[in-house]
Design goal:
About 30% of the residues lie in helices and about 20% in strands. The protein is α/β, with parallel strands linked by helices.
């Protein structure tokens, strides 16, 4: 028996390769499927099943392509309805893979069809649970992604409570837990950085598995402080349900080298978005006017999904040398399949052709501190709500990057704004979007709030009410 977790950091997502006696199964594969096929070929194994824990909202799965290329059967939990062929399993149904078995545990709550998969080893013992987005390490899946007109998020949270207590908490403490996501995913609130655990550990440490917790308490705690889902979640879930273009074709169309003239022509005539995926320092030093920065070195795919509202938006890329295929691939993972090429030779070629280059002013936190002492400044904090509420500069305007498209009317294009995030990645994203919308007086704060805290600028710190005296 072989179990391999294939973890993708930028999506905080775990896919799984399972093998026994020349037969293999893949659980929740990523969009690019060749690595799974190569792995099976190297092991002289045939991929027999592709198990999907649910209709994923945060990424486009590779299940359809994988089934088409290998002849594997796609398995979903009870009630799943798709536009392509699947096996909709019944609760408790068992699938054989060599000498081991996978048992379906229908665990609705995150979504209605959500299912966990229990691996039973060669000796008939419950060995591991592939829990998808039902159970994470430290958290559980958010119950607001499958709303119907007659079903509220409170209803789904109640289903999740029952699923956890009747299907998962009844398993032995030594059963290994392989979750669908880890820290950084928007599918939960409090996910652990660890990616493998046990049922016993989760019973001890996961707030949602407290033995004395009532359903009313569970519903309240799970929903408390849950931010709205990113706009692309519903669109990705629909792609996973209806199918999508073959990844090979998406890569062929998007991984095309463009001369500066061709690049400019597509930008002007195809209404294409120029997406710069280099580092923030590279973007600051020089970029194509009106381009948007979202660097491959950060949480690239989730920010693309949160900020580019049209999955069909034509995109052309400015990439670090040799990373053009990676950029197209990572866009496709969240359903952005309309990449039309990348700038051959990068910004150096653009400059050599005599075309215009823009820069972004950036100053240190120390320089900001000196400026604040001599004049009032307009400072934008673009971190998430929770980050801002925990600690922030005094007299600062909070302007969360997540909602920049909706809230742009809150700032004045005639004023100069100094922008910071936690470390410098998101502030450059925000500045690039604002620049493209006509806000020209922008200054990035290098190092973000981490650097600001090292200065003598006044910080407002959240104090837990229980620690207050008198």
């Amino acid at each position: 028996m072989k179990i391999e977790q294939i973890y993708t950091g930028c999506l905080a997502q775990g896919a799984y390769y399972i093998q026994s006696e020349g037969e293999a199964a893949i659980i929740d594969p990523l969009r690019e499927i060749q690595p799974y096929i190569d792995k099976a070929n190297a092991e002289n194994a045939k991929i027999k099943y592709v198990f999907e824990t649910h209709f994923h909202a945060d990424f486009v799965s590779g299940h359809v392509d994988l089934a088409n290329k290998t002849g594997a059967t796609i398995v979903y939990g009870p009630g799943a309805e798709t536009s392509y062929d699947i096996h909709s399993a019944t609760d408790g149904e068992v699938f054989k893979i060599g000498k081991i078995a996978i048992k379906v545990l229908h665990t609705p709550g995150h979504t209605l069809e959500s299912s966990s998969y229990l691996l039973i080893d060669e000796n008939g013992n419950n060995h591991a649970l592939f829990s998808g987005d039902t159970l994470f390490l430290g958290d559980v899946g958010r119950p607001d992604l499958a709303i119907k007109s007659d079903l509220t998020k409170e209803d789904l949270a109640g289903m999740l409570y029952d699923s956890l207590r009747t299907k998962i908490m009844t398993l032995a403490d030594d059963v290994i837990v392989y979750p669908g996501h880890g820290a950084g995913s928007a599918c939960g609130k409090n996910l652990s950085k660890e990616t493998i655990g046990t049922i016993g550990d989760q019973k001890k440490t996961n707030y949602a598995l407290r033995s004395d917790m009532t359903k009313v308490e569970f519903v309240k705690e799970v929903l408390d402080g849950m931010p709205p889902p990113p706009q692309y979640f519903a669109k990705n879930a629909m792609l996973n349900k209806t199918g999508y273009d073959a990844f090979d074709q998406v890569l062929k169309t998007g991984n095309v080298a463009l001369t500066p003239d061709d690049f400019e022509a597509i930008a002007n005539h195809e209404d294409a978005l120029v997406l710069d995926v280099r580092t923030q320092s590279d973007f600051i030093e020089g970029h194509i006017p009106n381009s948007i920065f979202i660097g491959l070195n950060g949480q690239f795919a989730p920010w693309v999904g949160a900020l580019i509202t049209d999955l069909k938006q034509p995109i052309i890329l400015v990439v670090p040398e040799g990373q053009n295929e990676e950029a197209v691939t990572r866009l496709s993972r969240v359903g952005y399949d309309n990449t039309l090429g990348y700038l051959k030779g990068g910004i150096a070629a653009w400059k050599a052709s005599g075309k215009e280059v823009s820069t972004l002013e950036s100053i240190s936190a120390e320089t900001l501190a000196q400026k604040v002492k001599s004049e009032p400044l307009n400072i934008l904090d673009v971190r998430k709500d929770g980050e801002y509420e925990a600690s922030h500069l005094e007299n600062v305007q909070h302007f969360a990057l997540d909602f920049i498209n909706q809230n742009m009317n809150q700032i004045d294009a005639n004023k100069t704004y100094y922008i910071h995030c936690a470390g410098g990645y998101r502030s450059v994203i925000a500045a690039s979007i604002l620049k493209a919308r006509g806000f020209n007086n922008l200054v990035d704060i290098a190092g973000g709030f981490a650097a600001i805290k090292q200065t003598d600028l006044p910080i407002t710190q959240f104090v837990c009410p229980s620690t207050l005296q008198g």
